Structures are given as C-alpha cells and as structure tokens.
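Notes, p. 3: input format for complexes.
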Amino acid sequence: MYVQKNIMPDSSSQLPSLLRQIFGYETFRPLQREIMDAALAGRDAVAILPTGAGKSLCYQLPALVRDGLTLVVSPLIALMKDQVDQMQAAGVAATFLNSTLSDAELRRRTAGLVAGEFKLLYVAPERLMAGDFLRQLRAWNVTALAVDEAHCISEWGHDFRPEYRRLAEVRDEFPQLPVLALTATATPRVRQDIVEQLKLRDAEIFIASFNRPNLAYRVIPKDKAVRQVWEFAHERSGESGIIYCQSRRSTEAMAAALREEGLAAVAYHAGLEPEERSRNQEAFLRDEARIVCATVAFGMGINKPNVRYVIHADLPKNLEGYYQETGRAGRDGLPADCLLLFSRGDMMKQLKFLDEISNEQEREIARSQLDHMVEYAEDTGCRRGSLLGYFGEKWPGDNCGGCDNCLNPQETYDATLEAQKVLSCIFRIQQKNGFNVGLQHVADVLGGGNTEKVRRWGHASLTTYGVGRERPRTEWVALGRQLVRLGLAKISQDGFSTVSLSADGLNALKLRTTVMVVRPTAKSGGMDASSATAVARAGDIPCDEKLFEALRVLRKELADAREVPPYVIFSDISLRHMARSYPQESEQFVAVPGVGLKKLEDFGAAFMGVITEWLSAHPRQTFAPLASAASPVRKMRAESALTGTALETLHRWREGRDVDDIAKLRDLTTGTIESHIALAVQAGEQIDERSFYSEGEEGEMRAALADHAELSLKPIFEKLGGHVSYGKLRLFQAFEERRKMAVPQD
Ligand code: ADP
Ligand code: ZN
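Output follows (746 residues plus zinc ion):
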C-alpha cells in the first residue's frame, strides 16, 4: 500500500484542533473522522453521505495537514467559486482554475501553484484533460485527489458527465495519488461504477444513513396549486424556498403568480437565456429572490445551505429524484419542510407520457418507478420510513416525529373481512392463471369491472369477482397497499409490480387473522397546507428572532461588499447561536459554531458591535439548552438524532414527570412516550435505567434477548409471559445498545 512519506505520522491527531480553529466546529459529524483518517493513511476511499452531511470537510481538512496540494475535481464552475469563497473566508489558501478567468489572472494563479502557495485547487474535469494540464500538475506537488459529485461518472446516475470518465487517466498518470470520491447518490449500481471507473484500489467505502432528521415530509391533496404554494410560502416569506414544477412554462407561470402576490420569486429552467438563468440563480443565492420556481434542471451544485422549504407542485417521476430534490432543503441542519402536492390527475398525466416510451422495458421501469412515487404519496405510514425503505435502509423507530402521518396518526379499524376479500382474490387469480397481476387489476376483479383483462383471463368466473362492489375501486387499491406494508402481500421488483401473497398472507387467509388497517381520510394526507405547519422542528435552534434578523442584515451588507453570497460570511446556524448566547467578547464569540479564528478576526467586531448595541435597548432572553449534539454516542451513530416530539418528551421527563403523566399531558400512548425516551437514551442523554424496570426484570430481559436477531419483539414479549411491556423491552434495548457503543473517552 502507498504510504505518503511526507505526512507527519500524527497528522491525523491535528484534525480536531484544526476543525476548531479554522472551521469553528467542536465535533465531527458521523463518518467525517473515519473518512479523513482513511484519506490521510493514503487509502482510496468512497464517501457516500447525504446532502448536508458535510462531505466537503472530508477533503478540505486533510488537505490542511498534508504536505503539498490537494486537487479537487468539481463539475460546476459556480460550485467551485462558491467553495473557494467559503474556504478563503475561513482563511484557507484555496483557489480554482476555469474558463471564466482572464489570462493575467490565470498566469498569476499558476505562478502561485508553482510556488506552493495553495493547499487546495478546484478544477472542472474538462480542464484537467485539456492540453498539457496533467503534465503541468507534476510541477505543483499534488499529493491527493478528491472527486466531488462522483456519481457524475456513472451513466446510471442522474447527472452523467462524459468528461468524468476520463478521470481514470489521472490515476494512470499519477498512480501514487490517493483518491477520495464523494457523492450523495446511494444506489449500489452507481457506487460500483465509481469504484470501477476511477480504478480505485482496495477502496474503503463509507456509507452514512440517508435519513435527514431536520427535514419534515408531508403530502397534501393538490387543489389549486398556485394558491396552496402561495399560502405555504407566504407564511415563510423571509425564508428561501425552491418550488419544483413539471414544465418550463409552469415554472414561469408560478413565479409570475407569486410575484403578483408580493413574493420575490424567479424562474429557472434550461430554456432560459444563459444570462437570465445565472442572474436568477445568483439572486436566489444572495437572498434577494427568496423563491425559485424551477424544473429539475435546477439543483446540482446549489450549495445554498439555508433553503428552508422545497415544494413539489407536480408529481415527481420517481422517488430517487424526489429524495435528491427535497434534499436541497436544510443543508445547514436547521429545520426545513418538504411538501408534495399530490393528485391522481397528475399521476394519470404521467401515465400518458409513459405510454409514449417505445422501449417496453424502459416503459415498465418508468411505470414501476411512478408506482413507487404514488405509493409514497398515498402512504398512510411514516413517510421517512417509506423513503428510506426505498433505498434499502430501515427506519428504526416507529414514529419519526417529522412527517405528517407520524404527527397526525390516523385511526385504525378492523378490516379483517375486507382483507380476506383482497387476499383471497390475489390467491384465486394466481391459482387460476399461474401468474400474478397488478393491484389495479385485483381491484377491478373485486369491483366486478368489465375490463379487457377481466374478459381475456376469464376473471368474471372467480368466486371473488364483484364481492367488493360496495366500495370504490381506489379504496381496494389503497387497502392492497396497506396489506403490502403489513407484510401480508408482496409487490414484485421486476418492473411489473405484480402482487402475490407472502407466507404470512397465506396464513392470515387460512386462519382469518384479525387485520387492523388505517382508516382512509377524505383525501390522501388529510390535511391542508396551513395545518401542516404544526410539524415538529427537529434541529431547531431557538433564539432571539429579532436579533437574528438584525444579524442577518449585517451579514447581507458584509456579503454584498465582498460580492459573495451571505452564507460565505456565516451560516444561519452561526447567527442563531449568536442570537441566543449574545457573545460580546472574543472568547465567547469564537465558541459560536462556525466561527474560526479568521472569521473572528474579520467579522467578530462587527457582529459583537450589533449585539452590544442590541442589548442596550432590549432585554436579554434565555433559552433552554439544546440537545447535546456532542455526546460520544451521538457521534458514532449516523442515524440518531432527537426529533422535535421526542425532545418535547425529554423536556417533560427532565421536569420530573413519569411516563404515564407525560402520556396524559401530551395525549399520546405510553408506548410512544417510552419510544421517545428510548431515542433519547440512544442519543446519549443521561437517563436512569432504574426508573423503568428493576434489576430482576433487567436480568430476565437480557436472558430472553440473548440470541434474538429479529426486529420484532413479539416472540420475546411472549417468552416473558407478557408481563414485561413492549415499552420496557424497547427501553432495555436502547440501554443495552448504549452500553455496547460506549467507548472510553479520549
Ligand atoms: P455536503 O457536501 O455533504 O452536502 P457540506 O459540505 O456542504 O455538505 O456541509 C453542509 C454544512 O454542514 C456546511 O454548512 C458545513 O459547514 C457544515 N458542517 C460540516 N461539517 C460540520 C461539523 N463537523 N460540524 C458542524 N457543521 C459542519
Ligand atoms: Zn414519520
């Protein structure tokens, strides 16, 4: 293996102090440290982390402790400039080379590179391959290569760029160079492509949880989209938001309609003149236009951290795209909202488009993707769980506290009879034909429909034909989906989305097991845009809002003077911390997250000045402490984060209330309260185990759970004769897990 001679053996141990001094952060985010250690050990690595997880830092910080120059390949010119601006504001010697620079400037920077003045150099892949650039690199002492947005190398990804393919030539030219590839795209196919195309050697692959705890997901029935969007945006008129629309025309219409109602909105799509496009984008980045109405062409390379909401005014084509687009909200970790306006009409429109795809296989894939999208929109369970499940990740809790369905749980009812009808219909069809069919057809048979397929397959002769006439067809489809979620039926993954019975389903059919399902509300989601605002705010940093506004004004002035976007000066997170701790001296100011030494020097006086002046005219407010983000367990667990509702429970617990009391107070079940506390335990909160069970019970549970590998606690519950509640079991598991994770403090 290649080990760099010129890095100091303890270079990795310098990382925490540099993190503090340069970037102003106290702790690493999940996987950051591990990725940096691999990179500094000279290994190839792939970092697959969701948007906002802090990928950039993974190559920026090692670049500072390493000798020589770190070369960063980045796909977009705008993105490059943005990153370099941010680096420079933090006092890091970073630069970029691209076609926007004058010859004189290019010569100046090249001379600087030869003289070893820079630690980081950003380039686009085109430049890397042009002329004798690779040869030039030899004179610049390049010691590491980082490939940002590495999914661009894959045709299977959503942003394929042929130029990325040639990056392997860099590897041939500099076989010794360790490579770090970074992306937010999770699919295994793309991951594999990255490793192969970049010719990575024995690469270490880091994959974080794709959960975005600070994003709240919700779906409302679409009905006069412009009005709904306006209502939502109007309530957040000081905040930045992206509104995705299907067509170029509708982005412009939406932006015009919002402008007419007094909101600063611009349009963005690939059909605009380049000048107008970049003007609109710039206005958005600089917090001048608060809203951008865009097609999916807008997004990649938009580094803006303080996008507070993303609305999809039309149904996206697939969940992968939906996840990426909503992912542009809340990069800074503060709460943000993702709203989807859904109508079956939109789905029908898209189905029509699909019919025009001539390749049958492509059509079926697109169809199946659309099915998944609709399934998400009509889901009555946790949306976070549904989204993560699509990427093969299990959501560990039962209530995420950050989606409409978890916050407004729907009523369940006994649907055993109806479930029997659906299950038996699926069973009969399979028995008769020897193959499976889609849910839509099952609903047709139940409803006694006379469709072409019913006639072709002779399904009118089935005993289940027409036994479901009393309910609308859509309800049968919805019920079928619930049965799939309950594990009683399965949808095939072959692109045809046919439905079949699982072993459990077959049993349920034979034994007439009770089946409880969620009662359908008037329309899917069952809430309007305004009640949606009640969603919990995970990641929130309560602060003096008026002071925050004043600090924002100062930030904008400083940013304009330097011709950079406001977030280059400070993130909203930093400003919110300032507006709750009121720092008036350097030692306090530098303790604000995101304040490093250089920013203290450049901006400290100005911000502290505003704060001092503020306090001379306004009372100082006090705030409850934030959930400890720095606990050792929290650092190790990619998925743990206390959501708003769990936090609320924790506060009540800290007030000295017990579980029953909190349940009553919050109008939730004791099971829910116990699962909140279990989450808090996992997040590293100090809670006394003895408040929940005796030592004797603990021993019993430990013995019963000893070699229990399944997710379901039911067998354990039964093994213990039902006298230890599920809540206790869950709590015990949380404490056990924490015991296992506990590491000696360093
Ligand atoms: P990504 O590229 O993964 O989308 P970024 O690199 O843009 O994410 O980082 C998102 C935000 O998180 C930035 O504002 C960054 O400064 C911040 N950040 C990164 N690492 C940390 C950390 N260890 N502690 C606090 N904030 C961090
Ligand atoms: Zn949820």
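The first strand starts at residue 45 and ends at 48.
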